[in-house]
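<amino_acid_chain>
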Amino acid sequence: MTEQGSRATLYTTLASGPDFRHEIEIKRSRFITVLRRTDSEEAARDLVAGLRREFHDARHHCSAFVLGPDRDIQRSNDDGEPSGTAGIPMLEALLKRETAPGATDLSDVTAVVVRYFGGILLGAGGLVRAYSESVSAALETAPLVRRRRLRICAASVPHAAAGRLENDLRAAGLVMAETSYGAHETVLRVAVPDQPAEMTAAAERVLALTAGQATLIPGGTEWTDVPLP
């Protein structure tokens, strides 16, 4: 399902920027976790390929990723570790990461754990814990943001009224988008969270602020990053 047609209108992801890296050592084995914000399977696999080149002498490059607002694309790879001891625990760490009390909505994230074997066998249970802990520890300090779907709505008003209406809408906490100007009217665009209650409240506010002279017309949607509360 595409971002535009997703059921979810809000989820959490990594903040834009360079890859986030975190390393732990368990019984002399080094576990280097690399997290990257990714929006496609191709981008996720590009990260794995790049780390294989960078850490070409490492024994394992295990990976997991979850993609899409509805988290409907999920993949993992043990890369030579015993089946089920690396990729799945890593994926579970991504899926179960609590981003707010009771909320597990992390997506568009790829995790790769590069392991340098230290000579001491960890056993199946030890590997599961090590790979899960590696990803969980990285996520504890990784920068996260909310990804929110906004509906771009338009209200047409006379030029003389546009400035005051825009100020009033901003004061009400609404996010203004691009403004355009016609021969007789100004078209103000407002970015409203794409949820029925939010849309109704914004439409009612525009009606009230213009004494019923302007209506809010819904348009297309776009996704934007907003800071975590």
The CA atoms of residues 154 and 189 lie 4 Å apart.
